[in-house]
Amino acid sequence: MVPVPVIPQTIPQVTFGERASGSEVLDVRICERSQGGPGVELAADGVWDVFVPGEPRQVLDLTEGAEFNDAGWRGAGAQLIRRLNTVIAGHPVRAKKHLVQVEVPSGAVAAQVRSFVIGVIVGGHTYRISNERSQPRVRNVHFTLAGSLAGAAKASRSRVLDKAVSAGVRLGAATCLSRDLANTPSNVKSPQWLARQAKSVIEGIDGVKVKLRDQQWLEDKGFGGILAVGRGSEHPPMLIELVWDPERVGIKRRGGTVVLVGKGVTFDTGGYSLKPSAGMQTMRTDMTGGASVIAAFRELATAQVPRKIVALVPTAENMISGGAYRPGDVVEHYGGITTEVTNTDAEGRMLLADALSYGAKKYRPTTLVSLATLTGAAKVALGLRTGAVFSEDWNTAVKLARRGAAVGENWWPMPQPVYLRAEVKSALADVSQTPKGPGAITAAMFLREFTRGIPLIHLDIAGPGRAESEYNEVSPLGTGFAARTLVQWLGR
């Protein structure tokens, strides 16, 4: 049986309060050490010691709170939960009763505790399809405070720490949901499946509207890019449209509308510009952008942020058939702009272009955001753990990068030189699908053609959207990258 996407109720229950006692309590101390990375040991007194770096690590000026080594705290939380899950698996009868009690040391900072909780939530989450019986896992984690909390008055310590724990749970839950959506195998995950899951995970949230646009609607409205990509598959393309409006629940809006557009390619063969087999193996995760948009939207709507948020996820399979689109085709997008197809494996931007144009026209937002595992060029430029931020406003790009760094997702602002704009044009159509020049930059400039003059923040997560091996709280396969950044950025 294929696991269904996780929602917060299916991850460990995390609480904060007074100390608990009893034979089923597994006590944990967070300890700082001056050298070495995070680690977990069972002390002689029967208490688990989880070590976090005590010395600050100087990081890039773009990051927020650089004086705190939050990555070490996330890694420590992940190591702890993985180790204790192994321990509890050896006591299946008692597993349901275990309470993992974590003592936060005096002098800790709320942001560090939040990072530790993210590590616990994300590090303990796995996605595996197996006929074997599932092993017992940690179900309850309780945090207590040993003394003072840095930066918090005595009267407000409990409130501040409780808020930090709750924030860590929300951020971790968003990552886990995105990971599950991305890691679901594509023999299960059609565009229709993704649309149903998007509707399911936000069901019951007040103030949210859901519209699942089918192929006929896309044809009637002229979504040529989405239709072109989806033509080769027996599973028709769709457009998932989610709207959170605080005014529907009596909350006054603050700030302008933000439209989030996430790439939802449920499997990518490359089309007639066929991928090699090794490059195709992980393409079930090619909709990580769409998955993170859905997950972030869920958390933002649940938190009732006082800003109107729209999530658009164009979803399709990029397959080969007699009806698939070809290099050399000219596609007319929603809004009338035409694209000369030069590489059918550049399908993500075809989907995003339609959705950006639609979102800009219908909602007139102050900000458009596109999120996608879009270009190998971004991976070459920044590696596997850093996302690329494209914005014409440097301050906006830096602000987003700082928000992401605060919750453990690294970003780097990228240039968009004016001289490259000419490369986007095509002699055959309005624009070329794959302009010459640096691929990640020209892809962002291509997308800007469809924004109707509204500021665009484009996020390319081709590198960090997937992981080849375990590090910190990250597990191999789809990582859920960018879900936490969007929640942190738009939820403040």
Briefly, what is this?
The chain has 492 residues and is an alpha/beta fold. The chain contains 13 helices and 22 strands. It folds into two domains: 172 residues, Leucine Aminopeptidase, subunit E, domain 1; 307 residues, 3-Layer(aba) Sandwich (Aminopeptidase).
Explain what the structure shows.
Belongs to the peptidase M17 family. One of its GO terms (molecular function) is metalloaminopeptidase activity. Helix 2 runs parallel beside helix 3, helix 3 runs antiparallel to helix 8 and helix 6 packs antiparallel against helix 9. The protein has two domains: 172 residues, Leucine Aminopeptidase, subunit E, domain 1, CATH 3.40.220; 307 residues, 3-Layer(aba) Sandwich (Aminopeptidase), CATH 3.40.630.10. The longest helix has 27 residues. The protein is built from 13 helices and 22 strands. It is an alpha/beta fold. Strands 9, 10, 11, 12, 13, 16, 17, 18 and 20 form a nine-stranded mixed β-sheet that branches.
